[in-house]
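Workshop exercise sheet. Pairs work together: one partner reads the sequence aloud, the other fills in the structure field after running the prediction. Swap roles for the next sheet.
Pair: D.N. / O.F.
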Amino acid sequence: MLSQVSRRALSVRSFSTSRIAFAAPPSGGKDSFREKENAEEAAYVRKHEAEQLAKLREELAKQKTKIAELEESINKK
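Structure field:
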């Protein structure tokens, strides 16, 4: 009988709240680490887009000067 009781005790699953604790942050749904990470990512994206825009504007200026030179050479003929 003792072996039956010990088997039953081993087969009973214990209740744990650890999954619940990890499922939702304790601050009522706000996760400061996630917010900081999103803010840093947004800042990186804005910086990268600004760099790309500066390069495109520089290329545009070069193309405009080239067009102006070509129009000038056409008008001379």
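Discussion prompt: The radius of gyration is 33 Å. What would you look at next?
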